[in-house]
Amino acid sequence: MSNEESLSFLNDAIAQSKGHSLHETFNSSSFRIFHEIDRMYPSAEQVFSSSLSLMKSASPWLSEMYDSLVQSVIPIRPKEIQSTTSRASFSSHVALGALFLSLPNEGDGKRVDLALSFAHEIGHQVLMIYQRFDPIISSDLRAPVYSGTRDTARPAIMAMHSAVALSYMLATCANVIRGGLEASDLEGQVSRNVYFDLHSRLEKNVHGLLTDVTFTKVGKKMIAEMAKLCESESAKGV
Fold it and tell me: What is the number of helices (H) and of strands (E) in the chain?
């Protein structure tokens, strides 16, 4: 989907949000829509496509998830600084199907960096869809629980989002290390450097949820799968 089509999708989402506008998100955020991306960063489409290709080659199941769930990728950039790159991404309930992603920082690991951002946001998309049919958490959604993505306590449902996103990132990272079809040796090494931090954060995140949260039947299955992933990766190593 072109940048113009993506922005059209976004405008439609805002129009249909009925008071829960994405304008509120951007007004309180340090990022804005990167309207000028085609002019300022002509290679942006290639960068996004290459990173997405890496994620898909490393994780065929994530490739299917992406093709089924994602309708648009919206480029974002910092509001206040001149740089066009600064890693950030998010999803929104009022624009389900849209991934908001910044360009990756320059460096040897930029393709891995953006591939993991894709995986992270697909995790959010999946959980948001589940939330349309099930509350996931039966205890207080606002109770403070450790979030691995922010490395601090956050409301329980946000900690759950963190765990799901980290799970998708860890699975992708592990697959790149173990021979993602398009991953170079250097990208494999970059992934190893990231892997241990992701695993540690996810373990702590899952432990906090299991300790402090009561789940619905659906939520129990989800947290059990994430705990299983942690155990499996601990056993496999890299």
Answer: 9, 6
